[in-house]
TrEMBL record:
<feature type="domain" description="Multidrug resistance protein MdtA-like alpha-helical hairpin">
    <location>
        <begin position="102"/>
        <end position="161"/>
    </location>
</feature>
<protein>
    <submittedName>
        <fullName>HlyD family efflux transporter periplasmic adaptor subunit</fullName>
    </submittedName>
</protein>
<feature type="region of interest" description="Disordered">
    <location>
        <begin position="320"/>
        <end position="341"/>
    </location>
</feature>
<dbReference type="InterPro" id="IPR058624">
    <property type="entry name" value="MdtA-like_HH"/>
</dbReference>
<keyword id="KW-0175">Coiled coil</keyword>
<feature type="coiled-coil region">
    <location>
        <begin position="81"/>
        <end position="129"/>
    </location>
</feature>
<dbReference type="GO" id="GO:0005886">
    <property type="term" value="C:plasma membrane"/>
</dbReference>
<dbReference type="Pfam" id="PF25876">
    <property type="entry name" value="HH_MFP_RND"/>
</dbReference>
Amino acid sequence: MNNTMKKAIYGGLLVIVIAACWALWQYFQVQPLAAGFASGNGRIEAVEVDISTKIAGRVDTILAKEGDLVQTEQVVAKINTDQLRAQLIGAEANVASAESQVASALAAIEQAKAELVLAEQELYRAQELIKNNHISKETYDTRVSQVAVAKAALVAAKAGLVYRERMVDAVRASTTEIQTQIDDCVLKSPVIGRVIYRLAEPGEVLGSGGKVLTVVNLADVYMEVFLPSAQANNIAIGAEARIKLDILDFAIPASVSFVSPESQFTPKQVETLSEREKLMFRVKVRIPQDLVKSHIDDVKTGVRGVAYIRLTTKSGENPAPWPDFLQKLPPEAEPVSVNNN
């Protein structure tokens, strides 16, 4: 093989390598957008929720492992309640005792009423007898005093009933408080999500607020991007968006749920136009919850990609169609707008 042929082969190989590198570089670049769209790099994120103990106690059981998918209100852990149940038995005994005192107070009222009736009857007879001087003035005064004493006794008996009824309310409230603490020892997931950290094990003693599990909330999956002020000013809450992840060959429909009212990167002194153009605003693009649930086993946070957002058009203008590389959506997906953060 002569030198001329070798040079031709090497030159051809070099051209192929350069063309392949150029095609690969183009593949990983953000596709150019037509007017009316904005884009920004970001990653899939979701809110992390800590499942913690409300009261101090010993961990009894943990029913979830790292990586498990948990549903809303699913029991994921339990704290030992032996001491609280003993306190509950004592509180219930106090309720029974207080209720018996209420019954005693009711009986005292009935007795006071009977004594008042008798005292009033004797006073009535004394009034008839004193008219004819059949009894002394002293005896009559005694009958009047007995009526006053009986009335006071009835008032005291009724006050005693109110006091004992409030005592019943107090001990019942104590019972309810203990029962609430027992209920709080059953830890439930507040969201649908995946366990990413198991922070305690059975037998450990945790203080109030001790963390047991950390769950990533898959009901709120989003991507945050930073856009310049000129674009952020033309983004409305609920605006249509699409997310293109590096690992997927289709776009994910989404919508804008938050636009920061304050810039994130602000020079100390904004004096020139070039400096003002550096102002960046945080924009949150949220994926519809129904779409997340239909692919919940495949949802992974931290995956990188690009969010594309449709900007607000002037009145009377038709919105530009999405670029070809964003036309392909998941089979069951339909663009949905949301207005909550």
